[in-house]
């Protein structure tokens, strides 16, 4: 299992999700990805998309300054 | 021999004519663009003359990183992500009213301030989003820089890394709630022939092939004009009024119908909204909740 991070701050409609999806596509089963976003709608739609795809949502943490860190584990 | 040469010359001339007619040459070669509301745009050469003018607030809607590496002199930075709030959307607002007053007042935008908004290739809808949010809150002195930062930089115009400190102004938000639609309002108009739902996402998102929510597809009856199809590829300036009318009218978006724009989160949709304002359409609303809300709500109908 490897851990990766992705910073999509400054990106909106719908690029945080598209970039997350692209990054998840490169990972192996069990790998984890921590995504940092600063767009509230992405903090909602990335976990929803991940759930739909069968990935595990390990955490959605507010980091202050309107930032969220979403940690996903690839299915 | 001479005949072959003449043919080559004629072919070359014919190619040049086709090239020009196809719009590859800069648009000003062929005169005005014919917009009903040309005052909503400002050209790069006009802005260059007005830099430093009192009462002008230039706003850069690119990412903070891009802004830090160089921006148009005098511009302040505003991240597009702060111009949207899902909870506020559900109450019929793009962002909370108090937040709008704090945000725009802090940028030095008061009653008489003229705002020029620009964006770049990474957030090509940012300027239109600011236009919409300011228009929603009653500020009508806003222009979008035609071609944005990309064109400004392509023309070799001056850049700066100085970060201005704006003097706070009193921004009084006067919400125009008729400009924003909620999910319930959209649902209530699904079978109304006088209402047109305009989807600004990509053709793949619209068709449900690219699924970015729990469900893929579109709002029933919606038509699709990808927001990027309204600008020219080479410099991101807006297409002429004639070309734009052709694009929108081909899918049934006509000025006599009320048009509700939407996309995935409501930002790209404001680009189509801005283009329709440029064309003089008056019955417009943006559905800010967009697909993030609609596609994730099992109770709302979809078309696949």
Short description:
The complex is a heterodimer of chains A (75) and B (304). Helix content of chain A is 35%, strand content 32%.
Q: What's the topology here?
A:
The complex is a heterodimer of chains A (75) and B (304).
Chain A: E1 3-7, H1 15-26, E2 32-37, H2 40-53, E3 56-62, E4 68-73
Parallel strand pairs in A: 1-2
Antiparallel strand pairs in A: 2-4, 3-4
Chain B: H1 2-21, E1 41-42, H2 44-50, E2 56-60, H3 64-68, E3 76-77, H4 86-90, H5 97-106, E4 114-118, H6 126-136, E5 142-145, H7 148-154, E6 180-181, H8 183-187, E7 195-199, H9 203-207, E8 223-224, H10 241-250, E9 258-262, H11 267-278, E10 284-287, H12 290-294
Parallel strand pairs in B: 1-5, 2-3, 2-4, 4-5, 6-10, 7-8, 7-9, 9-10
Helix pairs in contact in B: 6-11
Folded structure, characterized:
The complex is a heterodimer of chains A (75) and B (304). Chain A is an alpha+beta fold and 75 residues long. Chain A is built from two helices and four strands, in the order E-H-E-H-E-E. Chain A has helices at 15-26, 40-53; strands at 3-7, 32-37, 56-62, 68-73. A four-stranded mixed beta sheet of chain A has the order 1-2-4-3, with helices on one face. Chain B is α/β, with parallel strands linked by helices and 304 residues long. A five-stranded parallel beta sheet of chain B has the order 1-5-4-2-3. Chain B has a five-stranded parallel beta sheet with strand order 6-10-9-7-8. In chain B, helix 6 crosses helix 11. The longest helix of chain B has 20 residues, at 2-21. Chain B is globular. Chain B starts with a helix and ends in a 10-residue tail after the last helix. The model of chain B is unreliable at 15-31 (pLDDT under 50). The chains are: A alpha+beta (75), B alpha/beta (304).
């Amino acid at each position: 299992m490897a851990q990766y991070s992705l910073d999509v701050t400054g990106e909106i409609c719908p690029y945080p999700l598209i970039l997350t999806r692209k990054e998840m596509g490169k990972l192996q089963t069990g790998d984890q990805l921590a995504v940092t976003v600063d767009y509230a709608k992405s903090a909602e739609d990335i976990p929803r998309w991940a759930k739909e795809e069968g990935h595990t949502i390990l955490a959605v943490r507010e980091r202050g300054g309107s930032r969220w860190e979403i940690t996903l584990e690839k299915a | 021999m001479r005949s072959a040469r003449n043919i080559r010359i004629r072919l070359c001339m014919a190619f040049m004519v086709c090239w020009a007619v196809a719009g590859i040459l800069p648009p000003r070669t062929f005169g005005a663009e014919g917009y009903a509301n040309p005052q909503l745009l400002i050209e790069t050469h006009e802005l260059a003359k007005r830099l430093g003018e009192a009462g002008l607030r230039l706003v850069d809607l690119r990412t903070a990183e891009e802004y830090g590496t160089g921006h148009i002199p005098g511009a302040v930075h505003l991240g597009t992500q702060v111009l949207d709030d899902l909870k506020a959307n559900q109450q019929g607002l793009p962002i909370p009213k108090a937040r709008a007053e704090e945000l725009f007042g802090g940028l030095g935008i008061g009653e008489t301030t003229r705002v020029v908004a620009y964006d770049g290739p990474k957030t090509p809808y940012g300027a239109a989003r600011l236009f919409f949010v300011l228009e929603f809150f009653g500020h009508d002195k806003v222009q979008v820089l035609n071609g944005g930062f990309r064109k400004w930089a392509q023309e070799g115009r001056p850049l700066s890394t100085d970060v201005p400190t704006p003097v706070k102004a009193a921004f009084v938000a006067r919400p125009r709630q008729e400009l924003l639609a909620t999910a319930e309002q959209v649902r209530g108009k699904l079978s109304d022939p006088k209402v047109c739902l305009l989807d600004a996402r990509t053709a793949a998102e619209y068709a449900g092939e690219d699924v970015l929510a729990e469900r893929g597809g579109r709002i029933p009856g919606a038509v699709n004009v990808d927001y990027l199809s309204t600008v020219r590829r080479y410099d991101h300036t807006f297409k002429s009024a004639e070309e734009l009318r052709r694009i929108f009218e081909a899918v049934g978006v006509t000025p006599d119908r009320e048009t509700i724009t939407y996309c995935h989160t409501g930002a790209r949709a404001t680009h189509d909204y801005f283009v329709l304002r440029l064309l003089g359409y008056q019955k417009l609303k943006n559905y800010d909740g967009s697909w993030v809300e609609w596609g994730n709500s099992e109770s709302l109908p979809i078309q696949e």
